[in-house]
Structure formats: structure tokens, C-alpha cells
Design brief:
Layout: E1 2-4, E2 8-9, E3 14-15, E4 18-20, E5 26-29, E6 34-38
Antiparallel strand pairs: 1-4, 2-3, 5-6
């Protein structure tokens, strides 16, 4: 699966990656403003 940061943990305020077939090929990490290249 590609990794998606769409899901957001409101309680802790932290984004976490989740398995998602329809996720974008770009991975956003940390604050969601950094692109670490293509997934896979």
C-alpha cells in the first residue's frame, strides 16, 4: 500500500501514516510540508 497522511489524530494532534490504496505517491512527513520523493 501507498502511505497516506490524510488521516489526522485529533487527540494528540499528530499525523500518522495509514495504508491506503488510493493514497498519493508522494509522502508527506512531520509537518506535512516535506516531500520525501516517490513511494515505492
Amino acid at each position: 500500500y501507498r502511505i497516506s497522511n490524510i488521516n489526522y489524530n485529533v487527540t494528540s494532534g499528530q499525523r500518522y501514516p495509514v495504508p491506503n490504496k488510493s493514497a498519493p505517491v508522494y509522502i508527506t512527513v512531520g509537518d506535512g510540508g516535506n516531500q520525501e520523493g516517490l513511494a515505492g
